Amino acid sequence: MSTSSATKNDAYLMALDAGTGSIRAVIFNLEGEQIAAGQAEWIHLAVPDVPGSMEFDLSKNWQLACQCIRQALHEAQLPASSIRAVAACSMREGIVLYNKAGEPIWACANVDARASREVSELKEIHNFEFEREVYECSGQTLALSAMPRLLWLAHHRPDIYRQAATITMISDWLAFMLSGELAVDPSNAGTTGMLDLATRNWRPELLDMAGLRADMLSPVAETGTRLGSVTARAAEASGLQAGTPVGMGGGDVQLGTLGLGVVCAGQTAVLGGTFWQQVVNLPKPVTDPEMNIRINPHVIPGMAQAESISFFTGLTMRWFRDAFCSEEKLLSQRLGVDTYSLLEDMAARVPVGSWGITPIFSDAMHFKTWYHAAPSFINLSIDPERCNKQTLFRALEENAAIVSACNLDLIAEFSGVRARSLVFAGGGSKGKLWCQILSDVTGIPVKVPVVKEATALGCAIAAGVAAGVYSTLAETGESLVRWEREYQPDAANHEIYLLQKSNWQAVYSDQLGLVDRALTTSMWKAPGL
Asked: Where in this chain does the record put each Carbohydrate kinase FGGY N-terminal domain (predicted)?
C-alpha cells in the first residue's frame, strides 16, 4: 500500500453506508481504524393500494445522510478539511430514476416487491427462456432485478416512466447528491440484471427484449474512480468541504469483502448478518447451469463473485432470543454481558448435533425457484434435559452453518472453486461457539477479522484510491485487514455434521412439499412464484 505525504494525524476518509434500515457516515484514518460515525434509521414508504411497494424517500433520506455526516465530523472533532475523500455504498437492487434535468424523481428500496405480475410476464418471453438469457448474461434472475420494476412503472406510473432519463443505484444517488455527477459502478449496477458480467457494461439488448427503453442507462465507472468533487451546494447541506474528492463506491457486499481483504480468486467469506451471504471469488465470470447461485461483479476489475444467501438467519436468532429467552436477557443485563454470549455459554454444554433436533428456516439457495419452507423445529423430544432453550439455540447455530455449507457446495459444483479456508464476518462472527461450529461443519479453517462490519471500510478504501491516497483496491484491502482469531475444524465433529447435513436436506425437501400443497406457509417467496 502506498500513501501520499498526508499523515495519519491530518488525513481521513469518509464512507457513506446506505443500508436497508439505516444510513451511516463513517470516518476512518489511513490505517483503516474507525474514528467516528453518525447513524440514522430510515423508513421506506409503502404506497397505499400497491402491495409490496417500498419507495425510497429521496428528500428525507438526503437530509438524514447530511445529518450523519455532520454528526460524524462533530464526534471526531475534525474540520471538514481533514476529509481527503468520500465515497458511498449501499444495499443492492435499490434504484433511482432522474429526469432530463438530472433531478431525482423516483426511487425504490431493495425490498420493494410490487412487480410480481411483471416478473411472471417477463418470464414468458422467448418461450419462457428470457430469464435464463438474462441470468447467463448478467448472473441475475428476474425476481430482484430492475426490469420488472421498470415495467411496473410503464404499466402503472407512465408519467414517471416517460420522464425517466437516467437510472442509477442508491449508492450512486448519494455520490450524485455530493458531486453532481451521474454514473454507476459494476458491482451495484450488476444487480439490476441489465449489466453484462463479461464486459462489466450495460447490455441494452436485454431491455429491448423486455420491451423497455434502453436510453436511460448511465455511464459506468469502476469502483475507486474519481467521479468529481463535493459541490458548494452539497457542502452547505452536509458540512463537507467544497472540492473534496468524491470516489465511486459500490455494492455493500462486494465492498464488505474488499474491507475483509477477500480480493483474490478462490477466497471465500461468510457474512453473518440479518441475512447470511456466502461469497466466493471466481477467477472469471461463470454462471450456474442450474441457476441456483447469483453471480455479481466484484469491485475488483475482471473478477466476479458467486453469492448465495441464507434468509433471515440473524433475524431468526433475534426472534428466538426475544420470544423465549426473557430470563437470559434479564440475567445478561445484571451481569453486564451480551445475551447471545450467555446463550452461547449455555449451548456449549449441549452435545454436537443438538440431540438430532432439525431447525427448518432458510433453505439453501435456489435462485430460479426461490422460496422457503414454513419455520419450524423437527424431531423435538419431551425430555426437558435434552429439549430446552440451550439445545434449540445450539441447533439454530448449527443449522445456519449447515445452510452455509450447502450453499458453498452448490458454488463448488458449477465453478470448481472449493474453499480451503473462509473469512467469517458480520454480527454472527462475534459468537465464538458459532465460529467453531462453522469451522466444524464446513471442515475448513475459519478466520475472524478485527473489523467485523467491513462494508464501510471497503467504501473508505474506494474513496482513498479515488483520491490517490492508496494505490489499488486489492493491495489496500489486503494490507489493512487485521485478524482477531482463527478456528480449526474438529474432524470427529465434522463427520457428525456431514450426516446431520444430509438429514436436514431430506427433511427440508419434505417440508417444501407441505408448502407446495398449501398445508403450510412459506417463510419467504420470491416475487413471481
From this structure: 12-259
Is pLDDT of 161 > 90? yes
The contacts of residue 70 (CB under 8 Å, 6+ apart) are 38, 238, 239
Residue 340, amino acid: Y
Cβ neighbors of 429 (< 8 A, separation 6 or more) are 272, 435, 448, 449, 452
pTM, 2 dp? 0.93
Is the four-CA dihedral 516, 519, 523, 525 of positive or negative sign?
A: positive
Helix (H, G, I), strand (E, B) or coil at 251: strand
Query: What is the pLDDT, as a whole number, of residue 9?
Result: 61
Phi, psi of 252, rounded to the nearest 5 degrees: -65, -40
Concatenating the DSSP letter of every residue in 396-458 gives HHHHHHHHHHHHHHHHHHHH----SSEEEESGGGG-HHHHHHHHHHHTS-EEEES-S--HHHH
355: left (phi over 0), alpha (psi -120 to 50) or beta: left
b/e map 308-321, b = 16+ CB within 10 Å: bbbbbbbebbeebb
pLDDT at 4 over 50: no
| Residue 240 contacts residue 230 (beta carbons within 8 Å) | yes
Which phi and psi (to 5°) does residue 345 adopt?
Answer: -60, -40
Query: Mean pLDDT of all residues in the chain?
Result: 96
For residue 297, the SS3 value is: strand
Question: Are 141 and 131 within 8 A, CB to CB?
Answer: yes
Confidence of residue 2 (pLDDT cuts 50, 70, 90): very low
Is the confidence at residue 5, as pLDDT, over 60? no
Q: Which three cell numbers stand for residue 263?
A: 480480493
- Distance, in Å, from the CA atom of 451 to the CA atom of 459, rounded to the nearest integer, reads 13
Cβ(438)–Cβ(305) under 8 Å? no
Distance CA 384, CA 449 (A): 38
The residues, ordered by sequence, that sit 6+ positions from 433 with a Cβ below 8 Å of its Cβ are 344, 347, 348, 394, 397
Q: Check pLDDT > 70 for residue 297.
A: yes
Q: What is the pLDDT of residues 385-434, one digit of tens each?
A: 999 999 999 999 999 999 999 999 999 999 999 999 999 999 999 999 99
d(CA 217, CA 242): 28
Nearest C-alpha neighbor of 463 from the set 13, 5, 10, 3: 13
